[in-house]
């Protein structure tokens, strides 16, 4: 095995082990677009455009990944979404 193959193998292995978590937001019939947008801006640090796009995707597709990262970063953000009455989970 050449050095080049060994390095490539190590890089591929590290990429597989660095999988990030995601906050998935689900559609509901209760919350308004404005409430969802404001909550995404507050909890996930979205821009107004990002939050609006996510809210539209959630409305039409039923769910949308709104934030990715480490579990420690996502857990308090997901809690804020849940406390605001939105349906979300970390996967």
Provide a descriptive summary of the structure in words.
The protein is an alpha+beta fold and 91 residues long. The protein has one domain (19-90): 2-Layer Sandwich (Ribosomal Protein L30, Chain: A), CATH 3.30.1390. Helices cover 59% and strands 19% of the residues. The protein contains four helices and three strands. A three-stranded antiparallel beta sheet has the order 2-1-3. Helix 2 crosses helix 3 (48-61). The longest helix has 15 residues, at 3-17. It is elongated, with a radius of gyration of 17 Å. The relative contact order is 0.22. The model has no long low-confidence stretch (mean pLDDT 90).
Taken as a percent bin, the fraction of beta residues is 15-25%
Q: Please give the largest β-sheet.
A: 3 strands, antiparallel
Question: Helix proportion of residues, in percent?
Answer: 55-70%
**Distance N to C terminus:** 37 Å
Mean pLDDT: 90
> What's the total helix number?
4
Write down the CATH class: Alpha Beta
Query: What would the CATH topology be?
Result: Ribosomal Protein L30, Chain: A
Report the principal-axis shape: elongated
What's the name of the CATH homologous superfamily? Answer: Ribosomal protein L7/L12, C-terminal domain/Adaptor protein ClpS
Contiguous low-pLDDT stretches (5 residues minimum) are: none
Task: Give the tally of structural domains.
Answer: 1
Biggest sheet: strands side by side, in what order? 2-1-3
Order of helices and strands: HEHHEHE
The number of strands is 3
Helix-and-strand structural type = alpha+beta
CATH A-level architecture: 2-Layer Sandwich
Domain Adaptor protein ClpS core: 20-83
GO molecular function: peptidase activity
GO biological process, one term: proteolysis
Keywords: Hydrolase, Protease
